[in-house]
Amino acid sequence: MWPTTSDLDPAGLRHSLASAPLLAVLRPSGPPQAERQIEAVACLGFRHVELAWSGEPWWAPFVVSAQAQWPQLRFGAAGIKHPDQIVGLPALGLGFAMAPIATEALLLAARRQGLTLVPGVFSPSEVHHFGVSLAAGGGGLVKLYPAAILGPAYWRLLRGPLQPLPFCIAAGGLAPRDVGPWLEAGVQAVALGSSLFDRHDVIAASDASMLESFVIGTTHLN
């Protein structure tokens, strides 16, 4: 039997994204860059940070230490492609993970670990199958990926034929200027990656100003 809405989101990610609908997706080369980038998004007011999964020896200890250093942030793992990558994430203190793909094996592995797993979807069939059909009452969470190729009008066009649409995070190739249009199109959250930083891992003042109302949760457009 497939999980209910609460089973699919034991971390309560839906609730926390409702007031702070942005996620930072970080793919640092090591701890120094990770610390610079996390500090930058934390100072801006982000509340959700995804660290790309890595098998490098530094990654797991850093995930644990980062949560102690920035207790105001909610950390998750990004780039999950295999069920065996999910095992051990809760032991590191992580409550959620994101995948660029969608498989039932990933969702089942996450359920066994008590982890919120957001699968990556692209087509209308994937949106419906993983966001609605597999979840009782249509309570699934999905990541529309890569969103930059599709554009916000794509999600808006799905409303009629696929109603009800699942809780959706737009991700993949998006920049700060894209946040408003995507939220207006009906997604509940937006993930931003490398577009956040310059080559010194600094967020431009113009981008910071553009994102301020979203990170503090006062301008959620849904």
Characterize the biggest β-sheet. 9 strands, parallel
Return residue spans where pLDDT drops below 50 for at least 5 consecutive residues: 217-222
Number of domains: 1
What are the secondary-structure elements, in order, as H or E?
A: HHEHEHEHEHEEHEHHEHEH
**Radius of gyration based on Cα positions:** 16 Å
Beta fraction: 15-25%
CATH superfamily: Aldolase class I
Strand order of the largest sheet: 5-4-3-2-1-9-8-7-6
CATH architecture: Alpha-Beta Barrel
What percent of the residues sit in helical stretches (DSSP H or I)? 40-55%
Shape: globular
Explain how this protein is built.
By secondary structure, the chain is α/β, with parallel strands linked by helices. It has one domain: Aldolase class I (TIM Barrel, Alpha-Beta Barrel). It has helices spanning 5-8, 13-19, 31-44, 59-69, 83-86, 104-113, 124-133, 147-150, 152-162, 179-185, 205-215; strands at residues 22-26, 48-52, 74-78, 96-98, 116-118, 120-121, 141-144, 167-170, 189-192. The chain has a nine-stranded parallel β-sheet with strand order 5-4-3-2-1-9-8-7-6. Helix 9 runs parallel beside helix 10 (179-185). The longest helix is centred in the N-terminal third of the chain and has 14 residues, at 31-44. The model is unreliable at 217-222 (pLDDT under 50).
